[in-house]
């Protein structure tokens, strides 16, 4: 059985965390913008395929990560003020929720609008649900809002992690970083 300090998340949990963060950021950067007509112009095919592929990877990672979380050991939580503990839990639950809601609204919106999912390498996944164009457009708009929301929330979450490290000087940020990142040492082994 793997031996590791209880002050940090395990290697697999950390890998899931940072890979998710990178993929969410890339999916945002390569997100097609504008009306449905614009998004589905042939000139935007590559960017849209890249965005959809990244989005499906985020969804697959979220599923695997939650399954892994059920099996994995977690570091002992830092002793925090009650409001901080509750708000950090709420942000984490919201982030997990958005990791599912963002790709699922994209898939539902595209399918209801009558578009297959188009992935890198020319792979297409045809709609598995009926056509309802108006509802599809609305859900696609909700997807765009949620896509912005996950970035804002992740920014807040990252700022909180940095605040923990620089101001509270506790081990919260280090708990999600591999040992080789030269940011400081975790001394306590709770
Ligand atoms: C899109 C970007 C991100 C997403 C979606 C995300 C999501 C999450 C989620 C869902 C957790 C809870 C993990 C669990 O308990 O299973 C978490 C924990 C954590 N994240 Fe992020 N994160 C992102 C970016 C960042 C960044 C940029 C930082 C640091 C600057 C960061 C630092 C942390 C830390 C320190 C924890 C552990 C918090 C604790 O145990 O209280 N995250 N993150």
List keywords for this structure.
190 residues, mainly alpha, Fumarate Reductase Cytochrome B subunit, two-stranded antiparallel ribbon, 64% helix, 2% strand, elongated, binds protoporphyrin IX containing FE
Protein architecture, described:
- It is a single chain.
- The chain is mostly helical.
- It has a single domain, classed as Fumarate Reductase Cytochrome B subunit (Up-down Bundle), CATH 1.20.950.
- It is built from six helices and two strands.
- The chain has a two-stranded antiparallel sheet.
- Helix 1 crosses helix 5 (133-168).
- The longest helix is centred in the last third of the chain and has 36 residues, at 133-168.
- The protein is elongated, with a radius of gyration of 19 Å.
- The mean pLDDT is 93.
- Protoporphyrin IX containing FE (HEM) is lined by residues 17, 20-21, 24, 69, 88, 92, 95-96, 154, 157-158, 161-162, 172-173, 175-176.
């Amino acid at each position: 059985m793997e031996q590791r300090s209880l002050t940090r998340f395990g290697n697999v949990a950390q890998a899931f965390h940072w890979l998710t963060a990178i993929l969410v950021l890339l999916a945002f950067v390569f997100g097609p913008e504008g009306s449905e007509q614009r998004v589905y112009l042939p000139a935007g095919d590559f960017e849209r395929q890249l965005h959809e592929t990244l989005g499906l990877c985020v969804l697959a990672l979220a599923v695997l990560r939650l399954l892994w979380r059920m099996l994995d050991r977690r570091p002992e939580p830092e002793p925090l003020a009650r409001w901080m503990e509750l708000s950090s839990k709420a942000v984490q639950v919201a982030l997990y929720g958005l990791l599912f809601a963002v790709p699922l609204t994209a898939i539902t919106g595209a399918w209801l609008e009558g578009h297959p999912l188009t992935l890198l390498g020319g792979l297409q996944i045809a709609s598995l649900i009926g056509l309802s164009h108006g509802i599809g457009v609305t859900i696609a708009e909700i997807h765009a809002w949620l896509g912005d929301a996950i970035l804002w929330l992740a920014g807040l979450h990252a700022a909180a992690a940095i605040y923990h490290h620089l101001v509270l000087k506790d081990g919260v940020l280090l708990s999600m970083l591999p040992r080789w990142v030269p940011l400081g040492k975790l001394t306590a082994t709770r």
